[in-house]
Amino acid sequence: MFKFDFGIEDDGTEPLQAETAPPEVLQSEPFAELSLSQLLESLPPLISYSPLLIPLSSSRKSVTLARRDLFDARFQLISEGHGDEPPVDTPAPTSTSALGFLDAPSDLVPGVYEGGLKTWECSLDLVGYLDSFRDADSSYFSGKRVLEVGCGTGIPSVYLLSYLFSENSNVNAHVHMQDYNASVLELITFPNIILAWYMSPSSAAYRAAAADEECPPGDPTIPGELTITPALKSAFTASIAKLGISLAFFSGPWEGLTTYLKSSVETKHDLVLTSETIYRTEALPALIQLLHQACADAQSRPLCLVAAKVLYFGVGGGVSEFVRALRSKDMVDKGSSGTAESVWERKVGVGRKIMRIDWV
């Protein structure tokens, strides 16, 4: 098991610690697409949330998103019976369960849990960089097909969606999100999307109609609790349909999504995002192949952004290893290779970068 000791409030100066020798990587999560109805059904009756303040370099200075509380996700699992004591004749729960990782969201077990319950620093860097595009073109995110790989709490995509939810007309946008663990998508990613919608103008009609039910204000800077009612789910579904927003969610290994994209009729993406996913060198080939496949329409030169720490102590991964693997012509189909251009950098503490990836 690996433990990332980086918190989003610190400098990221504490090392990644290898508590034990890494186990043989086993694919314990099969590839799957989670339907919107499935995720709506998985929502609990109540979501507790807190504000996440993200600094920006633009004139907006900062943006605040509502993010589901981890303790609330833990309470959901316990209330659903996942925290019950097992019968005497059954094995005891292990730390590889979703409940176990909610107590230590930065722990990593390759092939079992990949840290998706925690919001990592580089995802916030990605939000700051993406926000700069709005200065040049206020409608930049409209009409885009977006894929976030290894999304975890999904903060970059949630930021994009919070902006799209504020539009008054059809935005014709497709936002696809992938995380290794289906439980992460159900417990954190999708609730964060629901919260982004609720805090936007798109939910104004619902909030007005449900005023007698003591709805919280549509203000992400104020912590609160959101009651999940059938009416809210219906309003959310109707709202994204009216805006022309298509959502898709995938869990399981990257190889599965690569195969899915190869067989899919619609493979073109305008914007491909990933953050904090290059920490294991043995996983780089699968990641690079997926990024390449997601950017298959080379003529349109899709924007592919990789946000990462320069070095992940104790594991061996980092920017140098990623760039070296990216340049290998044996990494992807047809002898292609990639180039990485640094478009943003932070040198204080543990260095962090955002790289734009192009394919040759």
UniProtKB/TrEMBL annotation:
Signal peptide: none
Recorded superkingdom: Eukaryota
GO molecular function: protein-L-histidine N-tele-methyltransferase activity
Its EC number(s): 2.1.1.85
Keywords, sorted A to Z: Cytoplasm, Methyltransferase, Nucleus, S-adenosyl-L-methionine, Transferase
Keyword DNA-binding: no
Presence of keyword Nucleus: yes
One cellular component term from this protein's GO annotations in UniProt: nucleus
Primary location recorded for the protein, binned into one broad class: cytoplasm
Region (Disordered): 1-21
InterPro entries, per the entry: Methyltransf_16 (IPR019410), SAM-dependent_MTases_sf (IPR029063)
Membrane-traversing stretches: none
Subcellular location: Cytoplasm; Nucleus
Top EC group: transferase
UniProt GO BP: methylation
Family: Belongs to the methyltransferase superfamily. METTL18 family.
Name of this protein: protein-histidine N-methyltransferase
